[in-house]
UniProtKB/TrEMBL annotation:
Coiled coil: none annotated. One of its GO terms (molecular function) is DNA binding. This is Phage integrase. Belongs to the 'phage' integrase family. It comes from Nitrospira moscoviensis. PROSITE patterns: CB, TYR_RECOMBINASE. CDD domains: INT_Rci_Hp1_C.
Amino acid sequence: MSEVITVRQIVERYLASGSTTHREAQRHGRWWIDQLGDLPAQKLTAELIRRNLQTLAKRGRSGSTGNFYLRFIRRVCKWGLAQHLLPADPSEALSFQKEVAPDLRVLTESEEDALCAALGPPYGLWVRFAIATGLKQAEQFSLRWRDVDVKAGTVLIPDPSAGAVASLSLSPAAIDLLHELRTAHPASLWVFPDLRNPTRPANVHAFYTGRWHTAVQVAGIPWCAWKDLRTTCGVRLAKQGLSVDEITLLMRQRERRQAYYYRAWQPGQKYLNKPPRRRAELVFASLSPEELLQLIGRDIVRAPLSFREVCHLYAAHHLKGRPSQQQFQRMYRQFWRPWCDRLPAEITRKEIRLWYLGLESRPAAANKAATFLRGLYNWAIRMELLTCPNPVTGLIRFRQYARERFLTAEEVRRFMVGLPYLPIKPRAFLSVLLMTGSRRGEALGMRWSEIDLEHRLWRKSRTKNGTSQLVQIPVQVADALSLLPRESEWVFPGANGRHWSTTSADKTWAAIRARWNMNDVTLHDLRRSCASYMAISGENLPTIQNVLNHRSLHQTSVYARLNIGAVGRALQDQADRFSQLASVPSLAEASTAMSIEGG
């Protein structure tokens, strides 16, 4: 009789395997053992997991806390499935709860002064140092003087996620506070020592429950915790005009999301209610047939069209229904609005050249904008809306180097090994990109009505080049798609009834590629990898063109260089011929050898 494996045994084996480095894994594991430890692993279902997670909510725990416990059991199930301890992964059908924006408690300068006065010296310096550096409570109270370089203005902070230390640059205000702390405290190895026994660090619990609570009441300010000092630091950095990336780096956060919260905070605001994201402004509305005829038929001698009117016609008439219409409107908002009331004929070549050179740091965007602008003038001249020459003609473009990155064989192996351990949504999405060579936007906009899983067909109603495409889905992709729940018209649903957004997909891929050590691989590189390995395997260019749905073979011809089999054979044959020449003696060598033998 085979041994019955319980949930307790799987969790304990997972923790003992060293597969996780999360600090809270032990606590999460004990909780799941208390809830489901004696249950046979074969009977573990998604409903049982969901029911136990609901008990956390009933106890007043937040949705974020429930997500931590769900992440743990998902990792355990993935590991158990790989070790053949589970017949299936019951956690795949469960989704994470949407996390609400946190409540931000930010101290004003007057509240900071009142709190520091209530704490008294030297404890007020502790508060100011926390606000100046943004250190967490555990980081600050475990700080030693050997970790501080006052001259260089740096401090070393343990980084548990990397298993190393991180160097934090200190502001001039923080350095001044360190000098004051050095004189205010008795001699000690600790920057924040226990004042009664300087050989030990400060007793955080005693300080927090005794002195801190009393000081907040004496200061007469709304309640604030120590973590609110870190929040105050982040908000003040945002008010200084620092970018999101700079704030994230200085606060040593894994994601940029918190930095956006800091930037959105307003004085007097306790709760952070993010306004709904507004769609991009529509610059050029659709034109009725009457309006279109009126603009095109206008006498351009007596009433010439303005630059904005020409752009409006170009977007609403020439680019109508094309994917490039939105991109053109974005270019107009970004670059050309200052010219809106000018006449197109008044915009000189020199102005165009100066505008273009101002975008030297963004060569790709500059070249794309110049292409749109040249097309706009050429179209207007053909439609007899303009009589001036095209000022963009002859513009020397910035040199661009085409991206040639595709997965190496080792990266493909890591990709395929890690794929089964992903949640079903990103697993299916990445499978579509790599194994069908589809564009990111095409995969995100995939509808169930376009897919026939029985015959493994995907009919793309509209692609980037404006045509439809029929794709034969590989078996592996069909299997991954069949696991997805049909909760929406979209195969990959997102928020507010729309499909999965590009931002969310990119963020998910950024987290995955970091775990797989592919930090420089983009989602489009997966499409390029599909085509590259087809070329390396000897597939002909028309086949690759059909897979990528390129309009012309010229776009696909860049993959011809990867089919090096014929080149390799030719070089080897030539090398063999050269080698054979060394084994055949020349006439002079043969006559010399004969004379020696005759002598």
